[in-house]
Amino acid sequence: MVRIGIIISSTRPGRFADHPAKWIEEMASGRGDMDVEILDLRDYPMPFFDEASSPAYEPSKNEVALRWQRRLAECDGFVVVTAEYNHGPTGAVKNAFDYAFNEWAKKPVGFVAYGGVGGARAVEQLRLVSIELQMVPIRNAVHIQWTVYSAVTKEGKSLGSFEFLQSGAKEMLDQLLWWAQLLKRARGG
What we know:
The chain has 189 residues and is α/β, with parallel strands linked by helices. It is built from six helices and six strands. The relative contact order is 0.17.
């Protein structure tokens, strides 16, 4: 069984991120072929990256960053639940990516996004960062458009009631599982 970390990238009060994070966690857990855990960036209040060097070259000094790195090391893959702010990902998630290196390498990452154009621009930027960290970004992502966001926040609908999101999430999780199993074996796990 592979272990998948579901990263909540928004740390704002009243954030929407809890809806997609819980939804994708329930979907992934219900499959029975992966062990999932939510990794909430609120629980890892790292300062803006201020280490003397990248964690690729020397160990971090910040205790919260070290705790973050240890948690990432336990995972075989990731789903990043990301908001889109001003055509990009949250500063908190980019900072979290920067505070690790080896713990990301040779692991797949999928995305569940929301915001302008369903968070597509945030996902595109995070894919580039992921590649630099030697991760394998999954082709398919889940994009929650404004109409769905509004239906969830204003009408009380669940994300699971939208068939196109369900099928997109299933395909993304299928791809994530395939890559996580393959790369776990390749890493000697």
